[in-house]
Amino acid sequence: MAKKVIQVFTKNNVYQHIEVLKNNKKKRSKNNEFFVEGAKSISAAIENNWEIVSLIYSNERKLSKWATDMLETSSAPEHIELPYELMVELSDKNDDYSELLAVVKIPEDNLSRIKVKRNSLIVVIDRPSNHGNLGTILRSCEGLAIDGVILSGHAVDLYDVKTIRASLGTLFRVPVVRVDSPKQVGEWLDKTMGEFSDLQIIGSTSATEKMIDDVDFLKPSVLLIGNETSGLSHKFKEMCNVMVKIPMYGKITSFNVACATSMMLYEADRQKRHRKG
Question: Which of 205, 200, 208 is nearest to 268 (CA)?
């Protein structure tokens, strides 16, 4: 099917819509769309069947084979042609502009997207406040085969360009659902326990004597990760069957939250691989 091609020559309404999706969280939420830059992220979105609203490019520079193939094969209903100068303004790359940009539909935040299996590990993140940490955690979640991520409460925007960049495309491959409060997580946990009576809910804290490797991750598990500054909220702590920590030496009092999460996820994977052997 032929694509609708929109030619833009000035900072008109079409350009301003793209720009506001990139820079404004409220507008992203209102329009249910977000801005994506970078070959890895755009390829991941298309490969994982995210709804592409539009692809954006400039004909004033020769496009690579990758960009040409994306334009020819994508399901985006419209393509937007911009002058080179406007592409450069939209791009965050310092050395060169991205030859292809995209507007992508935000999927529904429905917890049914999180599929729990007999040996699942689900990660719940309580009010993440740093784009880089969130993106890094998502990378670890994909790399260590986590089945889904739930973001709870007031947090940095999952669909901010800084989060997407830090995730290196993993945002499009790991199911991530946002909820407003611990209450929704609690209701989901109650429902999930109806299917998996041995589901264990594990909280992370330095204020415990129990170590992460004391937990049996062969059971279906939910790992709760606290806010970078204040840790887990009281309501989340009340949901936990067990609170664990990572062994820590020296005079430091805490690990970076993305680093700590990666270590705990590795321990879960180590146990599963060891038991298989």
Answer: 200
According to the CATH classification, is domain 4-105 in 3.30.1330.30? Answer: yes
Tell me how far apart the alpha carbons of residues 130 and 142 are, in angstroms, rounded to a whole number. Answer: 19
With a CB cutoff of 8 Å and minimum separation 6, the contacts of 181 are 152, 153
3-state secondary structure of 157: coil
Q: How far apart are CA 252 and CA 194, in angstroms?
A: 41
Tokens of 261: 């999460």
CB-CB neighbours of 9 under 10 Å:
10
Residue 94: the pLDDT is 59
The torsion angle over the Cα atoms of residues 111, 114, 120 and 121, rounded to 10 degrees, is -70
Under 8 Å between Cβ of 193 and 222: no
Summarize the confidence of residues 180-186 as an average pLDDT.
Answer: 97
Is the pLDDT at 1 greater than 60? The verdict is no
User: Residue 228: what residue type?
Assistant: E
CATH number for the domain running over 111-276: 3.40.1280.10
Provide DSSP, 183-203. Answer: HHHHHHHHHHHHH-TT-EEEE
Predicted TM-score of the model (pTM):
0.94
Please say if the pLDDT value at position 2 is more than 70: no
Q: Read off φ and ψ for residue 61, nearest 5 degrees.
A: -130, 145
Q: Can you tell me which residue has the tokens 């999930």? A: 192
Task: Determine the Cα angle at 225 with ends 173 and 142, to 5°.
Answer: 20
- Structural domain boundaries in the chain: 4-105, 111-276
The whole-number pLDDT of residue 267 equals 97
pLDDT for position 206: 85
pLDDT-above-90 percentage for the chain: 87
